[in-house]
Amino acid sequence: MRNIAALLFLFLSFGLLAQNPATVFESSGGRATANYEGVINYYQKLADLYPEIQIKEMGSTDSGYPLHLVTLDASGEFDYKKAYDEGRTIILINNGIHPGEPDGIEACQMLLRDYVQNEEKKSILKDIVVGVIPIYNVGGALNRNSFTRVNQDGPEEYGFRGNARNFDLNRDFIKADTRNTKSFYEIFHYVNPDIFIDTHVSNGADYQYSITHLITQHNKMGGAMGDFILNDFTPKLEQKMKDKGSEITPYVNVFNTTPDEDGFSQFLDNPRYSTGYASLFNTLGLMIETHMLKPFKTRVESTYNLLEVMMDIAYLDGKKIRQLKIDRQTDLIAGTQHPVAWRLTRSQSTDISFKGYKGQKIKSDLTGQERLAFDQNWPYTKTIPYYNTFVSTEEVTIPKAYIIPQGWHKVIDLLKANKAQYKRLTQDSSLQVEVYDIEKYNPSKTVYEGHYPNNNVQLTVIEETVKVKEGDYIFYTDQPAGRFLVETLEPTATDSYFNWNFFDTILQQKEGFSPYVFEDLAQQLIDAEPELKKAFRKKKKEEPDFALNWYAQLDYIYKNSPYYEEAFMRYPVYRLVE
């Protein structure tokens, strides 16, 4: 009888365990994180146990392994378009973009399990659908070690920042050099989120908070959505986190100094970053940054609390956030100005109450030089300035459409991957358009994520008639991807395709002249063009170096002749303004 009771107890225990599967984080007492296979298997187990959870493959990655999307949908239909049409708020959470920062990987596994098991939590799911990318950087997750996060307090083992081709995926959202990013495009537009969350771990300084937030920069988002982020969403997030006992502050963006010395500024999430990319589709973005000096267990718990707060905010304000997203899209009107580059202004700041540790410069026993040291035995609470106002440094007039010759297929493919709507010309024709000539640009002298980006672009705008071919593409700006089109196709935009080297072939002259042959023709050109002769003589008179350089003189005449190639420094994307 005693044996039967023992067996019954074991049977019931295993049954309960199967219905309430523990994560690796929980089983290890908060010391370990699951590997890639373990995370996928855990979500598969949840999907087998609960009809509200689905896991599916969504494209490939550079590692050769697939990217997955896990969906929490109380209806069990897993139809994002239907959920959107029904007015349900859609959240997309991205984990493991840097797999050495696995807090969100563990928190999301527990979050989805708890929301299907707890009836009180489950009650809000009638108005919310949650999508989770379990591990975005699969290659980095497979490259496990215990050393590359040299300053981080746990877990015992983790993945590496670079992906299978050593790209930092949180710099790839515009240029899409990786399969991961192209698969992310598929997920993002399939889910069509109202709220996007990306989970990270960082340092920057030592302070009392275990978690910080990096929310879509409100000036850059603009419109009523930008005002909502600043005046409603951010204060509500901070208060709710405080109520949970996980007080939060803005991401501390300082290097080798103390936050209280001069205050600190908001990080500008340009479109190369995940939340900056999301803002191009008017999606409210939030990057979680837990503090690497805090224990792994504390960081995961703080991440879990923040995700719960976001579920609550989505339940309370989801319909408002959806409407603001729709309204922001209609703000993009042809003929109006749109900012495409930004800078911080220190003329405006917000006073925040900041909880830090005393920091000071002391002499290093190792180097003999000054070093920064924080004293955790000396905590403080101070009112310090927080600089969170950015002003535009470059604005463009939004065209009616962009015309792209079909040969620029790499750019066109990226626009298609981001669901930009287009038409194709049905016949050869001539169109009156605005054309850019690239006057100046500064290529980077050092490599950055596989590129030598162009900066400080200066343009000349020319109105002229161009010949376009049957099959060339027209992308109208009056569409959901309108802002994405403007901020990738305008060369002066911070993360434009021009700046990311997609058009560098136009920056190299393909044809030239043989001086001994061209000299006679140059004389004929000068004699036939009085205005050219006048300008040539004036330049020789005013510029001694030019007057002494015979090749420069011939080159000047060549570049002002019909023989000079039109494609050189001519940006091959045309603006249709009428």
Instruction: Give the class from helix and strand content and strand pairing.
Output: alpha/beta
How can the largest sheet be summarized? 8 strands, mixed
Average pLDDT number = 95
Spans where pLDDT lies below 50 across 5 or more residues: 5-17
End-to-end Cα distance, whole Å, is 90 Å
Overall helicity: 25-40%
Number of strands: 19
Fraction of residues in β-strands: 15-25%
Radius of gyration: 28 Å
Count of helix runs: 19
Q: Which strand order spans the largest sheet, edge to edge or round the barrel? A: 1-2-4-3-5-9-6-7
Shape: globular
How would you characterize the overall build of this protein?
- The structure is a single chain.
- This protein has 578 residues and is α/β, with parallel strands linked by helices.
- It is 36% helix and 25% strand.
- The chain is built from 19 helices and 19 strands.
- The strands form 5 sheets. It has an 8-stranded mixed β-sheet.
- Strand 1 and strand 2 form a beta hairpin.
- Helix 5 crosses helix 13, helix 10 (223-243) packs antiparallel against helix 13 and helix 16 (515-528) crosses helix 19.
- It is globular, with a radius of gyration of 28 Å.
- The termini are far apart.
- Residues 5-17 have low confidence and may be disordered.
